[in-house]
């Protein structure tokens, strides 16, 4: 797995390269370009396939998952937010594995706190089986147990060979950038 981006930002060019199992820091200014900004000069590839001309949905289908401020449909259940991208059984298993959302699948997503919404976004990313993950302040609003859980998720992605791009929002998120498990 190899992710390569050349972004034309207001203050100059930015090259981002992440190979199998790497964790790479990206600046805040790069996040929009990685997700959906449409500067025709930008070039983003995933395993040599260009994804820069795709919109957000196309980039997700190509394997780019992102975790940031999670938008939810207020009246849709937490479980159904996950079941939109995986089976109901898998959604229940994922919810049971998370510290903030275990046992909350039947409740409406609109009552979730910011940290709980981020955990839901992480679970959605896990459910899609991403080829590369962008964590945009993913630890913001999380308590210590949830932050430790997310650190384990990041280590699992890296051990599976998934490149992880990190825009740290909290000092603890910098530990995700440490050399650690890399895919074979």
Describe this protein's structure.
The protein has helices at 28-35, 56-62, 78-83, 88-97, 114-128, 144-159; strands spanning 2-9, 12-19, 23-25, 43-46, 49-50, 64-67, 132-136, 164-167. Strand 4 (43-46) and strand 5 form a beta hairpin. Helices cover 34% and strands 21% of the residues. It has a 4-stranded antiparallel β-sheet, with helices on one face. The protein has a 4-stranded parallel β-sheet with strand order 3-8-7-6, with helices on both faces. The model has no long low-confidence stretch (mean pLDDT 90). By secondary structure, the protein is of the alpha/beta class. It is built from 6 helices and 8 strands; from the N terminus they run E-E-E-H-E-E-H-E-H-H-H-E-H-E.
Q: TL;DR?
A:
Helix content is 34%, strand content 21%. With 184 residues, it is of the alpha/beta class. α6 links the parallel β7 and β8 (164-167).
Describe the secondary structure blueprint for this structure.
Elements: E1 2-9, E2 12-19, E3 23-25, H1 28-35, E4 43-46, E5 49-50, H2 56-62, E6 64-67, H3 78-83, H4 88-97, H5 114-128, E7 132-136, H6 144-159, E8 164-167
Parallel strand pairs: 3-8, 6-7, 7-8
Antiparallel strand pairs: 1-2, 1-4, 4-5
Helix pairs in contact: 4-5
Q: Quick one: biggest sheet?
A: 4 strands, antiparallel
Question: What would you call the shape?
Answer: globular
Question: What is the count of helical runs?
Answer: 6
Q: What is the tally of beta strands? A: 8
Strand composition percent: 15-25%
Average pLDDT figure: 90
Instruction: Output the radius of gyration.
Output: 16 Å
Strand order of the largest sheet: 2-1-4-5
Distance between the termini: 11 Å
Q: Class by helix and strand content?
A: alpha/beta
Question: What share of the residues lie within helices?
Answer: 25-40%
Please provide the ordered H/E string of secondary-structure elements: EEEHEEHEHHHEHE
Unreliable segments of 5+ consecutive residues: none
